Here is the input.
Amino acid sequence: MIETPVLIVGGGPVGLALAADLGWRGVGCMLAEQGDGRIITPKMNEVNVRTMEFCRRWGIADAVHACPFPGDYPLDVVFVTTLAGHELARMRRPPRMLQRVSAQANSPMQLQACSQMWFDPILQRFAGAFPHVTLGYGWRLESFIDEGDSVVAQVANRDTGGNETVRCRYLVGCDGAGSMVRQRLGIGLEGAGTLGHPVHLYFRAPGLLEQCGRVPGTFFLAIDREGLWANIRVVDPANAMWRLMVLDSDGTLTHDKVDREGLLRRAMGRKVEVEWLGTSIWTRRRLVAERYGLGRVFLAGDAVHQLSPTGALGMNTGIGDAIDLGWKIAACLQGWGGSVLLDSYDAERRPIGHRNVGMATEFYLAHEAFQSGLGAIEDDTPAGTAARAQIGAQLETSIGAMFRTEGLQLGYAYEGSPICVPDGSAAEPDRADRYVPSSRAGGRAPHAALEDGRSTLDLFGRCFTLLSVGGADVASIVSAANSRHLPLDVHTLGEAAVIAAYGRGLFLVRPDGHVAWRGRQAPDDAIGLIDTVRGA
Here is the structure.
């Protein structure tokens, strides 16, 4: 029998992120992935700002920045009739290397174009470097039983046909939309279900933009007389790898019936020779699990939320699940987490699942407004020129919203969490396009630049952190934390940037970087505060 504190089922980016976070926290785990871990046709291509902050915490942000996507490549979003046709609008997004993080920025990090075929190996190398983390590829979960004080799982090796029994304290299903773990738990999905059946076509086409006479960009959305129907994205500029996404099909299309050449011709507006790399037909959904776990078994990623990729929320939402769950499992295994700490995982992350699924669905449904009245859009006439100008402005406002998401990335807060202590203040409006920093309990602790060049975010992660801004006394909180064996770092800060971001007082920040409590001074019942935030 294999003994491990945590068994993670599924080795995509969410499972790898959980293994990485647990390993970074000193917690042993085993990951069981039935595939070989190689990504040929990536499902995700952007690591958003919040996920980059987690990469910064782990010390792998530089590795993500060093991925093969060129740092000087324009990230522009462009609306076109075809790639070789008319350009209707262009949203300028400068290359990462030309972006500058200002003193007023809400994060020290920036969104990074980094395909899953590069991001997964970065996570693999990081997680696999911990001696207490085992990455098991070629292992398939067959069954599991929650015995109350542990979980016993049966896994099979794809290559040898051998079977092993694994006993763990916790099992986490990161095994995708068709999650066997979720199904075995009997947990259903809530929501309107299917939105469509997109088609992904991957190809290699050196010099494609030059052939089409197009100024470089990363994301091209194609709209013709029949409507907004596809997008064309560069995945790997150096190796001329592209992805054409047809937004919807009739739901009966099979791989052998996909008219790749016809779709390519429609998207390009001309004949282009390409090397085909892969085709996938998948289902666009809007679903959230009824619960995020049962007993000692938990779920994360696509196993609990299935959403449109509009807004680049899929993997990044799953990484947020892993971060929330990781520190809580570690706390319970290390003995200072309370008896209801893990219950807060569902209470915190399921509302975020509903939030992100809802916002991604809104972004996608906005495409429906551009399916009629487009007759002149391709015409080389004054009427066509006027139509393109009008529709281009509408596209940039409406469809462009899915690329203006700082609030969506940074602004999620755990309102009503049982392990956060509210102070009665009103929440900031939850807007996709705008993030307003706040030190309220439940929200992401704000970034502020410190005099030594670090960010306040660099103070968080390993344990709880108590910030004393303005010199308030911390003795009673420190004593209470010690009495409960809750690991706590204390920092006294007085920089103007910190005061502007937080205000004056005391701020207790959780290991995931969210504020647990704030006050002008220590509470009368410091023990009660510590017991609340540790889930006791």
In short: The chain has a mean pLDDT of 96.
